[in-house]
Design goal:
It is built from 13 helices and five strands. By secondary structure, the chain is mostly helical. The strands form two sheets. It has a three-stranded antiparallel β-sheet. Strands 4-5 form a two-stranded antiparallel ribbon. Strand 1 and strand 2 (157-160) form a beta hairpin.
Length: 320
Amino acid sequence: METSSKPRLQEQFRAVMRVHHYSIRTEQSYWYWIRYFIRFHKLRHPLELGATEVNAFLSWLAVERKVAAATQNLALNALVFLYDKVLQQPLGQVGEVVRAKRSARIPCVLTHEEATALIARLGQPHQLLASLMYGAGLRVVEAARLRTKDVDFDKQVITIHDGKGAKDRTTLLPAPLITPLLERRERMFRAWKQRDIFYQAPVSLPFALRRKYPKAGCSFEWQWLFPSTGLCTDEDGQIVRHHLHVSAIQKAVRHAVRQSNLHKPASCHTFRHSFATELLRRGSDIRTVQTLLGHADIRTTQIYTHVLGQGFAGVVSPLG
């Protein structure tokens, strides 16, 4: 049954996602769990299934697959969206689902010396990207997606557009990065002004912006600060240049970690954790750190006080 209905369902799902302006990453994640749900129920169409089958699937994920709580919630969100927005048959109450246990893990962080030493091991442009993650608290996706217009050198502010949760925010531009970023932008501007072959293809643009502003993809303001060397096609089938792929940055950081003597499970996101921890260690207000990180809930930011050991109210060990 899946061979005849799946393409139509996927096209319908994709169209509704685009109407609601969900990101491509969310679209991919939601479709992954919808396909998983269909396969779990022996390729039956979702219209033949309902709340009972959703309950069984989510409970199986927790009991048999032992997925994290966040993963189970993502699967639930995908199925709720499918039934509510795409099939227009809201699930309602799905009953008592066996919930995956939410682990209260303390994140891995680096000291300032460890972070700077790790960054020094990276080549360009990965070194500059890691410096932005550590110096401005950016997620790896946010750093990769920066455009030339997003960096305000006069105000020393970086603007993040369409971050996690489709939210915009601003964060600080570290002073040591002003010169290398300016030099990078100037090199790009000279090449763009000379109509270098690298800039002949337009850059990818969000949603319907290309149709609203046909020339925006070729303007300098919309150029990626860290463009990919290759071309790809966007959702409309047009050949465009995208930003440097996130996996390439992650691979470079993993290689640097292996070559170092850190003995910590560090990753790209560790730079963001280290940014927050270092600010708190230096006396920054936790509300300010929350704003810079873009956390909706202060409790998310408070995890970094546990990393610093500030949650013990001055208690000293009996050993001193």
